[in-house]
Amino acid sequence: MKESLQFTHINEQGQARMVDVSKKAATERTAVAYGEIRMNQEVASGIKNQTIKKGEVLQVARVAGIMAAKKTVELIPLCHVLALTKCEVDFSWKTAQILSVRCLTKTVGVTGVEMEALTGANIALLTIYDMCKAMDREMNIMNVCLLEKSGGKSGHFISTNQEINE
To answer: Where does this protein act, in terms of pathway (predicted)?
Structure first.
């Protein structure tokens, strides 16, 4: 006998719905997302020396990532509206031509903030691409993932992705 699947985002009539989280306890919740962008040497030097024609790439990308995290509910269907209490976007050079981003999000609430962290990381990377695409159309956005999540009933999650954690 075939078991019926219980989709949490579909009601008994097969219609999309937002999950009811009203019975869940509010807890402090955090998430950290990660991503990378590989670029040519000219772009990497331009970002490092702040000589990109469009302006200061990392400051613009940082603000874009924070703004995107705050607007996740407008981008991902069925996400809950969350009041972020913290959002940070940080960059570091993994190699001479690979720039990594970490987006940390935090709230006190009844549902997690991992979609907000992932949205912030992705939009920060896309903003870098947009600001530098005239110099390198082959930039590669890669390895976007959830690094860590805490709070809620599922507990503390830490990624075991060896490639990212190196």
So the answer is: Cofactor biosynthesis; molybdopterin biosynthesis
Would you place residue 73 in the very low, low, confident or very high pLDDT band (cuts 50, 70, 90)?
Answer: very high
Answer yes or no: is 67 a known binding residue. Answer: no
User: What domains can be seen in the chain, in order of their start residue?
Assistant: 32-158 (3.30.70.640)
Out of 20, 90, 130, 136, pick the active-site residue: 130
Residue 1 pLDDT more than 90? no
78 is annotated as contributing to ligand binding:
yes
CA distances to 23, 64, 113, 116, 159 from 86, in Å:
24, 15, 10, 11, 21
Is a pLDDT exceeding 60 seen at residue 61? yes
Check if 130 is active-site.
yes
Angle between helices 41-48 and 57-70 (to 10 degrees): 90
pTM: 0.90
Least confident of 9-13, 49-53, 64-68: 9-13
